[in-house]
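Let us practice reading a record.
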Amino acid sequence: MPLEEKLGVIDPDYAALLNGCARLGADEVRQIGELLALHGIAEEYIEYSGNVAHIPLADRVDILALKGGGLFNGENLDRQALASQIQELTQGPWQSLLPPVVVLSRGGCESITLNFTELALGLEWQWTIVCEDGRQLTQRFTPHELPESETRTLAGLSYSRRLLTLPPFLDGSLPEGYHRLTLQALALAGGDSGAGSCAEMQSSPLIVAPARCYEPSWVVEGQRLWGFSVQLYSLHSERNWGIGDLTDLQELIRLAAHKGASFLVLNPLHALDLRNPDNCSPYSPNDRRRLNLLYIDPTREEEFHADASLQSAEAVERRLNMQRRLQQCESINYRAVAELKLAVLLPMFLHFVEHHLALDSPRAQQFGRFVTAQGASLQAFAEHEAARWAGLAEGIDDPRFTLYTQWLAEMQLEACQRLAVDLGMRIGLIRDLAVGGDGGGAEVVLNEDLFCERASIGAPPDPLAPQGQNWGLPPLDPQQLRASGYSHFIDLLRTNMAHCGALRIDHVMALMRLWWCPRFAERGTGAYVHYPVDDMFALLRLESVRNRCMVIGEDLGVVPPQVREYLNSSAVFSNVLFYFEKYDGFNFRRPEHYKARALAMVANHDVPTLAAWWNCADLRLRHELGLISTAAALEEQTRWRGVEKRQVLQWLGEQWLLPPQWQGDCTLRPFDNALCAAILRCCARSSAQLLSVQLEDLALLETPVNIPGTSTEYPNWRRKLPIALSELIDSQTGRDLLSGFALERALPEAPQARVRSQPAP
């Protein structure tokens, strides 16, 4: 029976690929495996059960095709394409004197691999390093005097791979930062001019990174801090415009700092596509380097109050009526919020053009410095957005409108971090960097040579998703990323480390490998593609130190041991979740046994709230949505939840924190404030140096903000908090729920400090 009949309805091209792979001989399979390895496409991985899972050859070849390396015409292997691709990837690096980028790490080997032809070995060469601060270091050398690591003969030419070790530089070593290394052939050792080298002159970026990420003094001292996790858009207030904004964030900072909190963990603040405002997931943004302008509070800006058209009685009444309607909605109406804010931001921009840009006022000069500091990537984003609005909204189709609104958003976010530090918060804001961007978004479209738009980031099959997961986010091509000198990755880190004390990196395993799958067609489940992990972590450490920004890696789920090693050696905090912290999949981990260098979360946006989890509301909702397919499956999962709840009660009892009214078998008792306070206090005893609690759990909400695996089935990323911040945190109930944190994580008085300055990107 043909394979396509066995598997049901699948893409015809994939069916042909399956049949073609089934007909391959052993030597062809070996050659294809060699090519796949050169592309970093993995043959196997450790799955959720701990077993080794082998990835079918057809799925790996399919991923190669998505990268542009197709090997099959229908069911027939293109042997010439196979041979030429192997030749290009194996011979290309030898035929280049320098790699496309050189990344060195402090404390590691400061040597560079160079490739010379036999004739070039006898030439006299000179290397020159131009540091980013303008300093230069130069030295002459003869290649045949360098240690040889390997040789190769290609097209009749003999190549020798030599290791150039750089000498100490000025104060003892190369300075950390972004430099330029140039190699130039001078003459034959005997004095004659030479030719025939790989290149008479070649230059590459030279990046020197520290051994560890930024570690503030409280980390080294072992202090244990706590804070809140907040979905900024969900904040409720009587003054916002139907969505939480950066003024709401300032109010939360004041309340949190007064309670003794040291940080706020935010959702990604990335720019969304306001032409399609219902695509509102912060983890599928338009561009991860830019901010969501819906978080701007227009009333904080000079232009809002100065523009007469916005302050007329009719305009004020119309705006207030719309604000009230949007505030009363239980869910965020992104389309209406976008229309309201754009209708105000546009006149503000036109006023700014007429009264500031045209006159080159001090405010206009401040704006100009921001645009210059952000560089070409912001300008490209602004032009892209203007082109998309062309003919739809006059004024918004001016690139300067995007520059202006990004400036406002950055200034307001910077003010939030400055306030947090001034109020004594040890970290302040913790921002979140999503693993990818929307396939049609500006980030991908403007960097199409770096992204594989036919592929998608996802996850391999597991019990909850037996067909695997497809997140619809195009992945970066590791070869193209390295060839570009990692400029895009560096830009991502710099822009997201601005105006915060720490950066949480979603799915930090992506620095080593990502699961790629076909983005659209019904094809294979995908394969892991590996990334230059040493370079990626080195760049992360460098930007962390330069920006004085801690790093937290979201490492939930199945994590390769090598990733844990990189996190530990690079001083990157882990991210753990109360629900999953168990010794054996059964018994909850004692608080003192939590990993110290970690951000422990009681719950987060991808799991049910405490109240929903205890009351099994999440299971009933998943059954209603078809994610739990049968009544029998619902009953089985509810039974297991009862087992977990008994374990939680035992966990609390062992810590002498179980409330009297919860003694005995109380698994069917509804969740209440007493049990919530006990769980929060027990988590506060955790040895993890960072601990966050969701605002939703203080309100005992059951409604989730997001249900993984859904899109149109459930209104993700729209649910608001039902009460104002002051009532949530400063009420008697809020004080009772948070009292355990003050007892378990009491800190000495924090010194007042001024916000750190942000280095220019």
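A brief commentary: The two ends are 59 Å apart (CA to CA).
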